[in-house]
Amino acid sequence: MQNLNRKGMSEVVVTVVLLLITLSSIALAGYSVLNLIKKQNLQTSPKYNCLDITTKFTPPIQIVKTCINQNNEIEALIRRSTEEITITTLSFKIGEEIWTCSDVCNNCEIPLPGSSKKYYLAPEKNTEGKTLEVYIEKCLIDKIKVLSCE
Fold first, then answer.
1. Which of 6, 48, 141, 142 has the fewest CB atoms found within 10 Å of its own CB?
2. Which helix (H) or strand (E) covers residue 73, if one does?
3. How many CB atoms are located within 10 Å of the residue 77 CB?
């Protein structure tokens, strides 16, 4: 009789141990994913995150055309999708130079949903053949090689 109680008790102990191992594994996996997101800075805004934006079929901002004009300025035609997403900062980067357009800047406007806008950027160095990158907040959205205007 006592042998049967031990057998029943060992099955309960094994079940409890397996349950604890499973719960610990789930907690560890959740912690790892959250830690990865924090390290990669994927979530930059409560309204959206970089991973969501960069994996969309139609990005919220797209470089339509870019070139260097006769005045050595970069002309960048930007099109904004019709999706309603709050964009407070739009940045352009080529090499180490960065130009920022924000909702608090009076001389630079962020395009409205469904519209296009041409930006003129004055780089300090020759940028022909280099890549122009466009960022929303800290999220790289699009990039294109800069060529001479025809």
1. 6
2. none
3. 14
